[in-house]
């Protein structure tokens, strides 16, 4: 019925089925005692192809691999009781701002939102494991800056931050630049404005 | 049946925070001044870049007025925003030449840019939330067996260590035999005999060292000295000799008592 | 690459993957809103056939279905990491005593060694597979007696225990020190004791 899967493919399949957490290529190679990461990568690709049409998919999120159910079957698997409780609107905005601007300080988040962000909002995102403190910005006051985590990528089905919806368009439109920068650009009001905008987006990327 | 796959529980919303509500306006999802403006901007259904800030400010102020009429408690920042927007509105209406820096156009532009950015974030936030999310749209393995790494210690030793250890045990615990060397000594009896014999020769004082065998080894000499001393004491006690010494560690002298020969 | 799995097959695959417990045909049928149990059974059979050669199997136990690791890959779930450690001096002495005197009880080992032997020392030797309990001595208290194993002979390159050098050979090799040196060794006792304590604590860790 099927072609026989290769030994490494079977081993990866069993390991990832049994794993409680997504695993990196390195972790898989170590666990299975395979020396060549390229070999593991190739077998993962074959396994991913095998599952592409099935009810369960093999996916890579932030460099870590796991099995999950096919998205089109969501309606069959959703329980009566919603498992993911709704995030408050404040929290979703803060999460989006962190994801699209990371790393970003709380003051920067607030300046974008124009509203004070209650301490609880960041807590909620950190408790979910989606956001983490990522050091301090070396400016006066040394504010803590925040960034997203691999769990965030996992949860939202993103292979990497490059997959964030619309991030390229936002960057191209300069909407990820601070207001001050945009102000300056707008006030200069020159014919080659379009060129400048392009320049800035390419710098930012 | 998939409860453990959903660690993502959130409090329903920030607006449910009871103590924040007193100074917090949350109507139809409005959360703050920019939010409110943004919502008003959206209701005009125009591009934020094209929107009339003047019209927007008008609507905002009307809203705040109405909210005040509804006896809602307004947050301080709403009022600050309202005051600022009222100023902005008046400045926009004034003739250009009377304006200060920064110009109301600049302020209006800044407001527009901020609204644009927040609008963009709200839009992508909604797109993000609509993605296939774990625990809502896609599900992880319900009962993973789990991977475990057991550490196993492999003990190593070798033949030499083994027999060396045994040798040490045997050596350490072997019955111990003590040998005492047969040393040359002069017994008390022979010393008594010797001292008595020599005392018989003369009545003069003699130093006790003169009683020692002249050619003996140092060990034997020390033994002989000790024995001769004890023999001298014994003979003195029996009344056959007398002892004298000038001071501590001075030569010890012995001589026969005259009448002892008869005794 | 593969034939497209049927819709019901995919649904069953996803459901059983996400299920926390094995599920009966009835529960599956109810969950998926399928009226015909026979249909579910047929799809399960197809799914089972699909997985037969893979790293994960679909199995039925007591009327309930679930995925589990292929039996030949079960070892992947419990990976052993080997760590080579040298036997402590205390343990080597005990091992030597057992090898030369077997079978011996612990009290006998102690009386030969002249030192109390921590319980952990015998455990280590049994863990190493070199020593095994060999019954009980039929004296009051019926103490357990210990003997060496074939693994022991193997590790030390011995054909049999008779190959162990005798006392005379040890003496000839200078391994049985004469009395004076034994005295010296006895006098040295304190530093040795400290060594042993170290050894034994590392065994325990």
Automatic annotation (TrEMBL), chains A, C:
The keyword Cell division applies. It comes from the Bacteria. The keyword RNA-binding does not apply. GO terms for biological process: cell division; chromosome separation. Keywords: Cell cycle, Cell division, Chromosome partition, Cytoplasm. InterPro entries: ScpB_csome_segregation, WH-like_DNA-bd_sf, WH_DNA-bd_sf. PANTHER family: SEGREGATION AND CONDENSATION PROTEIN B. This is Segregation and condensation protein B.
From TrEMBL, chain B:
This is Segregation and condensation protein A. It comes from Erythrobacter dokdonensis DSW-74. Pfam families: SMC_ScpA (PF02616).
């Amino acid at each position: 019925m099927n072609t026989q899967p290769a030994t490494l493919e079977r081993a990866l399949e069993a390991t990832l089925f049994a794993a409680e957490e997504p695993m990196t290529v390195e972790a898989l190679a170590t666990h299975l005692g395979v020396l060549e990461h390229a070999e593991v990568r190739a077998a993962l690709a074959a396994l991913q192809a095998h599952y592409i049409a099935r009810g369960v998919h093999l996916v890579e999120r932030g460099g870590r691999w796991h099995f999950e159910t096919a998205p089109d079957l969501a309606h069959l698997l959703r329980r009566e009781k919603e498992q993911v409780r709704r995030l408050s609107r404040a929290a979703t905005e803060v999460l989006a701002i962190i994801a699209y601007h990371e790393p970003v300080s709380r003051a920067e988040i607030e300046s974008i939102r124009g509203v004070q962000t209650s301490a609880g909002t960041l807590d909620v995102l950190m408790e979910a494991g989606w956001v983490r403190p990522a050091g301090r910005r070396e400016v006066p006051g040394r504010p803590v800056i925040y960034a997203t985590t691999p769990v965030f990528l996992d949860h939202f089905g993103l292979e990497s931050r490059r997959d964030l919806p619309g991030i390229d368009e936002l960057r191209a439109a300069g909407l990820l630049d601070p207001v001050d920068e945009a102000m300056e650009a707008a006030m200069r009001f020159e014919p080659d404005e379009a060129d400048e905008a392009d320049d800035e987006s390419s710098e930012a990327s | 049946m998939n409860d453990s796959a959903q660690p993502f529980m959130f409090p329903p919303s920030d607006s449910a925070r009871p103590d924040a509500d007193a100074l917090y306006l949350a109507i139809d999802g409005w959360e703050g001044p920019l939010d409110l403006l943004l919502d008003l901007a959206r209701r005009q259904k125009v591009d934020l870049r094209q929107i009339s800030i003047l019209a927007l400010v008008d609507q905002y102020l009307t809203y705040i007025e109405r909210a005040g009429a509804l006896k809602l408690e307004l947050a301080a920042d709403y009022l600050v925003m309202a005051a600022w927007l009222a100023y902005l509105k008046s400045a926009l209406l004034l003739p250009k030449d009377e304006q200060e820096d920064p110009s109301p156009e600049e302020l209006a532009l800044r407001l527009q840019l901020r609204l644009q950015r927040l609008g963009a974030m709200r839009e992508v936030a909604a797109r993000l939330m609509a993605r296939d999310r774990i625990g809502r749209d896609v599900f992880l393995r319900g009962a993973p067996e789990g991977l475990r790494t057991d550490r196993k210690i492999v003990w190593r030793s070798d033949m030499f260590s083994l027999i060396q250890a045994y040798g040490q045990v045997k050596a350490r615990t072997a019955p111990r035999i003590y040998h005492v060397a047969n040393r040359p000594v002069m017994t008390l009896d022979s010393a008594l005999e010797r001292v008595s014999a020599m005392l018989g020769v003369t009545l003069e004082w003699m130093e006790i060292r003169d009683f020692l065998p002249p050619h003996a080894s140092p060990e034997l000499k020390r033994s002989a000295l000790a024995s001769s001393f004890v023999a001298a004491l014994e003979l003195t006690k029996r009344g056959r000799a007398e002892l004298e010494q000038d001071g501590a560690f001075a030569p010890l002298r012995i001589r026969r008592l005259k009448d002892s020969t008869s005794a």
